[in-house]
Amino acid sequence: MVKVYEINGVTPVVHPTAYVHPSAVLIGDVIVGPRCYVGPLAALRGDFGRLILEEGANLQDTCVMHGFPGCDTVVERDGHIGHGAVLHGCRVGRNALVGMNSVVMDNAVIGADSIVAAMSFVRAGMQVPPRSLVVGTPAKVARELRDDEIKWKTEGTGQYQELAVRSMNTMREVEALTEVEPDRKRIEWESSLPLHLHKNAQA
Predict the structure, then answer these.
(1) CATH classification for the domain delimited by 1-173+185-202, as one of 3.30.1490.20, 3.40.50.20, 2.160.10.10, 2.30.300.10
(2) d(CA 153, CA 130)
(3) What are the Cα distances from residue 6, in Å, to 27, 90, 174?
């Protein structure tokens, strides 16, 4: 069962079509919209400001969302937050991606269809234009994204939207096997490549 906690009389909201892993923690003023995916060990601490995942967004394993009192931390529709990222009092625009272990600080806005590279630090108040590739610590806009890169991101988010459905339908807690079965099956899934390999495949 998902770890959901009321605080100061405010209870998290999770849409019935969203999947939240049982090890994730939701506290207080949290709103998880339709078709969202929240991964294992994610922490959404709505004990000060409001946290919102809009429709189709995903927040992956060990991500953290938090914000100051009176502010909203928002991942807009189809936003994609990679493993271990931290969002604090910021806004991630529609169909944007925040890469693994990145940090996005207070009052920063990541424009629609943008990608924040893994391990980037987006400083407080930074305004990222739409369709931007953002890289570094501190993060800077490197260039405008190409259509094929945005398509790659959109397809990856679609896989997480499908994962939400697959997790609701097939994930269950079990005991581990003690040895590998003969002819062990693999999880059947459409092939997807990391962006640097995707670029090579497109060349």
Answers:
(1) 2.160.10.10
(2) 14
(3) 6, 23, 29
**Assessment of whether the complete model's pTM goes beyond 0.90:** yes
Token digits for 101?
């272990």
Q: What is the pLDDT along the chain (203 residues), one digit of tens a residue?
A: 779 999 999 999 999 999 999 999 999 999 999 999 999 999 999 999 999 999 999 999 999 999 999 999 999 999 999 999 999 999 999 999 999 999 999 999 999 999 999 999 999 999 999 999 999 999 999 999 999 999 999 999 999 999 999 999 999 999 999 999 999 998 876 656 566 555 555 54
**What residue spans of the chain are helical by DSSP H?**
147-170, 195-202
* The pairing of beta strand 3-5 with beta strand 109-110: unpaired
C-beta of residue 60 within 8 angstroms of C-beta of residue 81: yes
Question: Cα–Cα distances in Å, from 181 out to 16, 133, 170, 189?
Answer: 35, 44, 20, 20
DSSP 107-166: T-EEPTT-EEPTT-EE-TT-EEPTTEEEETTTTEEEEEPPHHHHHHHHHHHHHHHHHHHH
Pairing of the two strands 86-88 and 140-144:
unpaired
